[in-house]
Structures are given as structure tokens and as C-alpha cells.
Amino acid sequence: MDSSKTQRGIYFDEKVYNLINLLKENSDGMSGESIAQKIGVTRAYVSKMIKNLKNLGYKFEIRKKYKLLESPDIPLPWEVGKNVIFFESVDSTQLKCQELLKKGKIGNGQWVLAITQSQGRGRLGRRWESPPGNFYGSVLLKIDIPLKEITKIPLLGGLSVFRTLKLYSLKYDIKLKWPNDVWVITDKPKKISGCIAELYGELDRTDFVILGVGVNVKNSPLQDISISLTDISEQSVSLIDFTQKLLKTFEYIWMEFNMGEGWGKIRAEIENNMWRGRVKVSKGHSEFVGTAVGIGKDGSLIVQREDASYEEVYYGDVFIWT
Ligand code: BTN
């Protein structure tokens, strides 16, 4: 793909989608003429699409027929979903999503996905290491909830990752950790994913939330404290397959959330699958150790302190304390 296109982002293209699927279905290959007829374009256009796909990493045998030999394991929109805008490399999918929103080039429910990020953003101003092979995505969400309940949004992201990981056969148990992470319970628990929710609106109005999700699918950048799906899965893992599953799962959870009893059920599921052991809560300069016991109605974390009193945590950092 020419570089101007990857900088502007690659959107879903019905013709490319049809071409790829035709070649996947016809593994012996197809002539340019018959592809052109089937998808309603000229032979020259077929050859142009093939050239662009080669630049993205697709491998073809081109003799009398076009034969697809290999597809790259990257989350291109025609591989993972129509609501995806794909970039090879960005500073941060959060920033890119914001930029596209300002330009009116992204709509509610659309995802910005990238292979790598040079300035991946973690919570509380931290950096999110972003080597290729992992999932980096930000979704634009139009919201209508009180500001105090905004903590629910990263919880929905965390639950989506949790449900998606559970679709694989895993060697270890996994737990949700408030407000957004999924942790793998090895001898020394390790983080596999994180979410961040950033508000976007004018002065006192919050119109949109940009929810960013990072999942270590094939790489764990911080060996000591992080782990990847590849490390814990019984099967080999493809980023395309993971992305398809995660996007569908999130779409479903978002629909559940916006229905009558939605949050109540989601909250119960989070409580059943969260880390309920000891935690250290750090809020700016103050910190305390306690036991995570539940999720509040508004999305806060309920912690029982060592003096048996309860505290609702709305912000700050929570560490698993073993
Ligand atoms: C955390 O600190 O746990 C949150 C990490 C969130 C990282 C994701 S990766 C995709 C999106 N783009 C970013 O810059 N950050 C989020």
C-alpha cells in the first residue's frame, strides 16, 4: 500500500474483501479475467489491488492465475471487521482516534487499530510498550452516562478481553483487576492486558469516550511483570483471529451494557471473575493495603481495609499484593 494511504489509514474496501475471499475459496487460483468479472472491476484494477496487497505483506503466485499463498497476520479491515481503520504505525491509537474525530473521519463504534505505537499511552501517564504482534486498538463510543460512572467503561473493556481470552484453552487461571486489567495467575501474577478511557467533549459536556485496549497477544514486552496469550495458550495464536473475537465480544458487551438490566449483569460477572485477594491501593501520596471484595453500583472498587472498614475506590492504582 502506498505510504500516504497507510498514514491516512486503511478503511474497509468491499472490492478487496471480495477479492481476498474469492482467492481464499479458490485455493488453486483464478484468472484475472474471472476475478474481474466476479467482483465487477477491470482486469487492470485487479492487478492494482494485487500490487497493493503485496505491499501489505500478502504473498501470491502469479502465473496464468492469481493464487494466494500467504496472508499477513495483521488486523486489516477486510480480515477483522468493517468498523476498523487500520494503520501500520501510529504514535498512539488514542491520539489517532482523537485526530480522526476532529476531522469527522470516524464514527461511533469504529476502531482504530495499529501494528505498532511509538508513544503508546498507559494509565496515569505511563508508557505502553507496543512491539508488533500484539493488539492495539481504540474505539470511539458515544456515551450518555453521568461522569462519576465513567469507570464503568474501562471495566467493559477489561471484561471484553477477559471473555475473549476465555475462548482459548489456557494453561493458567486469569482474573480481572480493577479498573481495567486482566492478570494471569502464575506463581507471580503477571499482566496480559490493559485499558484506558479518555473523555472527549466540550467544557462540561462529555460526548465521547475513547476506549483504548492493549493486549499482549504474541509478545510480552516487560518480561518480569507481563505475559502474552502465546505464553499461556495451549494452541498457536493468530492476531487476526484474536482481533475478530475481541471486536465481536466488545460489540456484544456494549449492546448488553446499553440494555435495561445490562450493567447489573455485567457487574455480577466482573465480581465473579475479579481478583478478590489482597491489594495495595495507591492514590497519589496515600496508600493502604486491604482486600478487594466487590464492584460498586457505579463501577468503583470496594476494598475492605485491615481495620475491617470498607472503602470505595474511584481512582488511583491497585496492585495485586501477594
Ligand atoms: C494501562 O495502563 O493498563 C492501560 C494501557 C492501555 C494501552 C492501550 S494500547 C491501545 C491504546 N492506545 C494507547 O496509546 N493506549 C491504549
Summarize it.
The chain is an alpha+beta fold. The chain contains 10 helices and 14 strands. It has 3 domains: 3-70, Arc Repressor Mutant, subunit A, CATH 1.10.10.10; 77-273, BirA Bifunctional Protein, domain 2 (2-Layer Sandwich); 278-320, SH3 type barrels (Roll), CATH 2.30.30.
Q: What is the C-level CATH assignment of the largest domain? A: Alpha Beta
| Distance linking N and C termini | 49 Å
In total, how many beta strands? 14
Q: Which hetero ligands occur in this complex?
A: biotin
Which architecture of the largest domain does the CATH hierarchy give at level 2? 2-Layer Sandwich
Overall SS class: alpha+beta
- How many domains make up the 3D coordinates? 3
Put simply, the count of helices is 10
Query: N-to-C SSE series?
Result: HHHHEEHEHEEHEEEEHHHEEEEE
How large, in whole angstroms, is the Cα Rg?
A: 22 Å
Low-confidence stretches: none
Which shape, going by the Cα principal axes? Answer: elongated
- The CATH topology of the largest domain corresponds to BirA Bifunctional Protein, domain 2
- CATH superfamily (homologous) name of the largest domain: Bira Bifunctional Protein, Domain 2
Residue share in helices? 25-40%
Describe this structure in words.
- Strands 3-4-5-9-8-7-6 form a seven-stranded mixed beta sheet, sandwiched between helices. Strands 13-12-11-10-14 form a five-stranded antiparallel beta sheet.
- Helix content is 32%, strand content 29%.
- The radius of gyration is 22 Å and the shape is elongated.
- A hairpin with a 4-residue loop joins strand 7 (181-185) and strand 8.
- The protein has 322 residues and is of the alpha+beta class.
- The mean pLDDT is 92.
- The longest helix is centred in the C-terminal third of the chain and has 19 residues, at 239-257.
- It has ten helices and 14 strands.
- The protein folds into three domains: 3-70, Winged helix-like DNA-binding domain superfamily/Winged helix DNA-binding domain (Arc Repressor Mutant, subunit A), CATH 1.10.10; 77-273, Bira Bifunctional Protein, Domain 2 (BirA Bifunctional Protein, domain 2, 2-Layer Sandwich); 278-320, SH3 type barrels.
- Biotin is lined by residues 92-94, 117, 120-123, 126, 128, 136-138, 180-181, 194-196, 212-214.
